[in-house]
């Protein structure tokens, strides 16, 4: 358990990150957390799910939940709330369909670090208002996650598929991990996803990350994650995200201001 306030009396505050790639290791916080990624890709893994946080999205991590976070070229702001401020908060990780209001409030909140030593009336009023909006944002979850498992064979199958998205097949995965195609399909069904659903979701989540990298065309990304055509990729991508790959890339990478994360230092 990480004590974000280090004994200080503050009820809420922020922590900004812009630096090297990092894997945090398994930990939990004594506070609720909303992390907004302005640039780069963040991943949050729990015992049950693996969530992708692409640029211009936010993730909710409830107090006390053990998780491991991976940051890749990330510039982000995390907002922390005392659990009493959001008493009916969800008890699982959610990727939020981040609204312009959530983004702007996060930027504004960055002036008050979670490590400050004393309360401030303006800060208290602002974070109280912020916390009141959290339940509404939690109702609009983005389906950007994959299941995880403790099953050794299934976990190996997931890792193999992740490394071979361009041309992977269920038969190839089964051969790689030493089980029959039929057994592998049963193992995926046991975690609430068919093999086909898992593969499609994996491909689209990887595509979201690749689309934020410079020099990648939509065709490059579609091919890299195993789609036969740009049109098929675009249809699947729109069903998941509600927008085309081109529109997503423009929103996720364009017009990002450089100032917010340094505002709280």
Main beta sheet, described? 9 strands, antiparallel
CATH class of the largest domain: Mainly Beta
Kindly report the name of the CATH homologous superfamily of the largest domain: Jelly Rolls
**In sequence order, what are the helices and strands, one letter per element?**
EEEEEEEHHEEHHHHHHH
Task: Please work out how many helical segments DSSP would assign.
Answer: 9
- Briefly note the structural class of the backbone: alpha+beta
Strand content: 15-25%
Give the termini distance in whole angstroms.
24 Å
Task: Give the tally of β-strands.
Answer: 9
Could you please describe the fold and organization of this structure?
The chain is an alpha+beta fold and about 260 residues long. It has two domains: about 130 residues, Sandwich (Jelly Rolls), CATH 2.60.120; about 100 residues, Arc Repressor Mutant, subunit A, CATH 1.10.10.60. It is about 40% helix and about 20% strand. The chain contains nine helices and nine strands. Strands 1, 2, 3, 4, 5, 6, 7, 8 and 9 form a nine-stranded antiparallel sheet that branches. A hairpin with a 3-residue loop joins strand 3 and strand 4. The longest helix is centred in the middle third of the chain and has 18 residues. The radius of gyration is 20 Å and the shape is globular. The two termini are about 25 Å apart. The C terminus is likely disordered.
